[in-house]
Amino acid sequence: MAFDDRKDILRKSSHIHYQLLSGAILLFSAILLLGNHELMVMGHQELLVMGQNTTTEAEEFKVGVVIDANTSVAKVWLTCMDMALSEFYASHKTYKRRLVLHVMDSKSDILDASSAALDLIQNVKVQAIIGPTTSAQAVYIAHLGKRYQVPIISFSATSPSISLFQNPYFIRTSINESAQVNSIAAIVEKFGWREVVPLYEDTEYGHGVIPYLMDAFQNINARVPYRSVFSSGATDDQIIQELHKLDKMQTRVLILHMVSPLGIRILEKANLLGMMSKGYAWIITSGLATELSSFGPSVINTMQGVLGITPYISKSKEVAAFEARWKIKKQYPNSERKLDILGIWAYDTQTNARMVLSQIGPQLLQELSNTRFEGLSGAFHLVDRQLQSDAFQILNICGTGLRDIGIWKPSNGTYKLNLCPIIWPGDVMEIPKGWEIPTNEKKLRIGVPEKDGFNEFVRTTKNSSSDSRYDVTGYCIDVFNAAIKKLPYDVPHEFIPFNKSKSGRAGSYYDELVYQVQAQGFDVVVGDVTITANRSKYVDFTLPYNEGGVSMIVLVKKDMSKDTWVFLKPLELKLWVTTGAFFIIIGAVIWILEHRVNREFRGGPHSMYQWGTMLSFSFSMLVFAHKERVLSNLGRFVMGIWLFVVLILTQSYTANLASMLTIQRSEPTYNDVNELIRHGYNVGYQEGSFVFGMLKRMGFDESNLKSYNSPREFDEAFLKGSSGGGIVAAFEELPFIELLLAEYCDKYMMVGEIYSNDGFGFVFPKGSPLCPDISRTILSTREEGRTEQLKKGWFKSKKSCADHKDPYGSSNSLTLSSFWILFLITGICSALALIVFLTVFIYENKQILVDPSTTTRNKVLNLLRKFCEHDENRLITYFEHCNDQNKAVDNRVHAAEISMDTGYSPPPIHDSPVVAEGVTACDDNSNTELGNYTTLRADYDIGSGNDDTRADVGNSSP
């Protein structure tokens, strides 16, 4: 026999080994009648004779068996059957009905199996049939059982594609393969894997479970991007070719659903190709996992880190005792085949039956349909002709054996799966993330929009060193790069511009760009792509990385309303503060310079009088209304400089205020969308944007929709107006509105409702495992404020329009930078005047400093006292000087009166008042008053007729 044929027989027989015995032994116990009959148990060698007739007095009950008879697994099954029957009849010696098996070889062929079953039913007249081996054979034999009302007990047809409803005489005494799919989905969900690839054989067994796997993965939102199908007779080259295809994909979670030897061959080749290394996750279903105990060390070594799913049976002393008896009883001591779970099920089924059956097919079927008892395996339960399982065991292949890492039960749910630490492929404890970017393949292809304007978001330029490469920059690109750098793994990628000429109808450019991801033209799309409900039907978006929404932009118009605080607007706050500070500083400097020589800057009725004098003098200079005269030269020098600065400030303030009061407040030209629609006005939108479709849904006629590509085209469209083929309003997304208002904040304003959307997002294929990872890093980047920093970096050249609605805003105010040189000159001059004053003061009072009898502290205090004292040599005011002159005149007039009355002439009065240095005589007003006074006196004297006196008085005038 050829090597491949022997391997194929081994595959079939090994599968029988796990599931044949339960069905066979169940039937044996089911056909036994509880009564006074004696049942004859045939020996092991007799059971191997097909169709053998035994002449005894005992009543025969004929049962057909369709199986690959010439295999080692058949001997395993017959051994377990012999043990079960022997032990059963040892405790039930009164039974007289004899069970006779008629075994026929199916020869691993569907037609041979069907022919054998038909021969057993028509010629041998069997009451039931055990088998056949495969699900494909069972489909045909089940139809024969239905037609002839003969129960077909399947020990290996585990495929869920065989309908129990359509085949009422079909009994499955093994676990349905679909029962394990939820446990597999629980593992996938626990580790957060978003993509899985099933590998299965191209048979009824392989195809039957796939729909159930798809449903289970869909329930946990896991995607199946590819299905890998292997022919049962696949060559090594075909296996390697298919595995190479899998290795080039991103998905690293592989579900292997097949039996040996095909499953073993695939795992061996995967190990040779490096697909049993770090990053991979392999799960084998029960068809292969239940055979693990029979595999040799060389096979186990190729499966390191693999997870297996098997029906769960608790270990007990009874199970251990049965296994010991089985090893003694088996007829093939040199075989590597071991007792497994289905052998235990077979024993339980045979030795614990409690059914009374007749030889009639329907009655036999009824008794077999609902069987339940406790045995070595625990609860052995048939419900509607199907064996039930309460739990599945999860195994981890490690070293030379198996590790039990957990149990999944249907009641647990997918979120409550508790597993022990797992050693994954590559001998690592790190959980595989489930996908990888193949390092030996091309980079991730990232499509970006090719824009004519709004290049702050995306800018594409040809690389000077290569005609085929592009340099791609912009805010959106920076956000993507910042997010992808936060991933714990490397993602090689390249940016590819999407040509605008590929866009067909109006407003479809970005839709076409997104469609390229679904069509696999790009792996990802990065740019100013808005998240919409329609687009999300075909692709997945990351979390948005900026504010979303659409609103209307219109031109502004003016009104005549005024601002209550408009008088403060001509100067910015810093200029107001600086000016006020210098008023106080200049007042203090003048006071210091005038304090010792000018009585109006000394003393008063209250201690705070001089503070008021200083402040009132300083601030009254704003309108040139100060009443205090500055007498010192240094004071006049400082005041002259400051009056010049004040003149410039007041003139500038007046001019700017007058300009502001003539500016009208901004108001929108249009603020009602319905008005635009009703009058058929043209409105604008950015070319290629989804806004085009939104405007059509709002009721705008397509002929009234005008596109633009850049801020310049936007502004030109408004200048043309609706009558000139331009627009009167535009609808744009909020990020673009921010740019437009920054460019033209004195011309346009945003009005009306904000139509919400989710903002910009990056585009990935449906179910992409990279999408949720990027979303998490985007969220982290936004929380750190990184996205806002990137925006400021790209938009830093744009002036802020946060207060563009205020016609008197700080953007129109005079700033400190316009006058800083004047304040600097004033400060320097004031400082120089103070230095000169202090130098002269200290020089004049140097004897205080050189006095050796006083301490330094006392010297400083004495200088301060001296500073506070008045200067006897210079202290005088303008009015004191005038009063002294007036007093002298009064004395001379009084003397003249005495001379006229008495004839006595008093000595001359010398009026020589002390005049302060640099102070002139009284002004014209004082002289006029004095002249008036003497004139009145002369008129009085003339009235008395004394001419001499009038002459004297007249001569007394200065």
From TrEMBL:
It is found in: Membrane. GO terms for cellular component: membrane. The chain crosses the membrane at residues 16-35, 575-593, 637-655, 819-843. Residues 443-797 form the Ionotropic glutamate receptor C-terminal domain. Pfam families: ANF_receptor (PF01094), Lig_chan (PF00060), Lig_chan-Glu_bd (PF10613). Keywords: Disulfide bond, Glycoprotein, Ion channel, Ion transport, Ligand-gated ion channel, Membrane, Receptor, Signal, Transmembrane, Transmembrane helix, Transport. SUPFAM superfamilies: Periplasmic binding protein-like I, Periplasmic binding protein-like II. One of its GO terms (molecular function) is ligand-gated monoatomic ion channel activity. CDD domains: GluR_Plant, PBP1_GABAb_receptor_plant. Disulfide bonds join C745-C801. It comes from the Eukaryota. It is a multi-pass membrane protein. May form heteromers. PANTHER family: OS06G0188250 PROTEIN, OS09G0428600 PROTEIN. Belongs to the glutamate-gated ion channel (TC 1.A.10.1) family. Glutamate-gated receptor that probably acts as non-selective cation channel. This is Glutamate receptor. It comes from Papaver nudicaule (Iceland poppy).
